[in-house]
Amino acid sequence: MPKSGGSPGTDRARNPPVLHLTASLRIVAKHKHMPKLTVVQARDAIEHLATAAQLTREEQRLAQDLEAATKIPVAELARITKQWPST
What we know:
This protein is an all-alpha fold. It has one domain. Helix content is 63%, strand content 0%. It contains five helices and no strands. The N and C termini lie far apart (42 Å).
């Protein structure tokens, strides 16, 4: 039976990051001690991690936790966050 769908790896491109969004929100909220973190706040935090010249130890841990959970480098995750809803 033929395989339906595209080539391997296209699922992430087609259905970007609902799971990445959820995992990222959870991780950023935990690190920032903000249980009611918004998508915009998480996006800003991830963009900061991707663009900062130097990160604090806590920011380094946050970046490592995000990369471990999503399997996506922070710079790429920052690019993906632009696809997230703003609310």
